[in-house]
Amino acid sequence: MNHSAHVELARRLLHSVHGKTVPGASARTASIPRSRYISQDRFLAERTRLFATTPQIVAHERELAEPGACLTIDIAGIALLLVRGGDGELRAFRNACRHRSTQLVMANDEPCRKKAIVCPYHGWTYDLTGQRIHVPHPETFAGRDHDRDALAPAYAAARNGLVWASLAPFDLRASVGELDGEMASIDFGSSVVHARSQREVRGNWKLKIG
Asked: Are the C-beta atoms of 114 and 53 separated by less than 8 Å?
């Protein structure tokens, strides 16, 4: 958002606080149905259509700077795993083995380090690019595992020192839009993560950001 837009928003806010009419603003009032905040069906639809497809900030790039660095995250109720490969690429996968969907890496607020990703259930092993590299007793599958030779992909990208992730492919520059320049000026990349914290709030997400 540019400076003139900030000024205009501040002007409107001050007029509203002092009970004045904003020039050019409509005097019309409106109400919002309470179901938009408490409906379980609406919440599930918002999670599927909005949070599953819109890139979200999930980490600082320094947390995943070194090859083998990994971090468990949650996007729209789906457990994901972020991994920095030996080739320097940042990748995201479903945090589930392709054998029996067992959780590969235990959920943790802190980044971890891996040389390979090993399923704790039956030992299926994947490299840092998500490719399967070992299966105990492969003959028992009689070739029926041929379409499960890699972790299910998710999507991640880093920009301006922050890591973004989504369940769907995205163009980060287009998604950030006009905020890209402002985020670059803040220089998040030079920041250091002091600590991670997580809390669960009983309330609709729109009440927290609206």
From this structure: no
Q: What angle do CA 93, 97, 99 make, to 5 degrees?
A: 140
The residue-averaged pLDDT of 180-186 equals 91
pLDDT class of 75 with cuts at 50, 70, 90: very high
Return d(Cα 149, Cα 99) in angstroms, integer: 10
| Residue 18 identity | H
Phi first, then psi: what are they for 36, rounded to 5°? -70, -15
Look up the pTM and report it.
0.82
At 86, is the pLDDT very low, low, confident or very high (cuts 50, 70, 90)? very high
CA 5 and chain centroid, separation: 28
What's the confidence (pLDDT) of residue 199? Answer: 82
Tell me the two tokens of residue 139: 């003959």
Q: What are phi and psi of 113, to 5 degrees?
A: -125, 135
Residue matched to tokens 């998710």 = 154
DSSP symbols for 145-162:
TTT-SBPPB-EEEEETTE
The contacts of residue 64 (CB under 8 Å, 6+ apart) are 70, 71, 82, 83, 84, 90, 111, 158, 163
Residue 131 DSSP one-character state: B
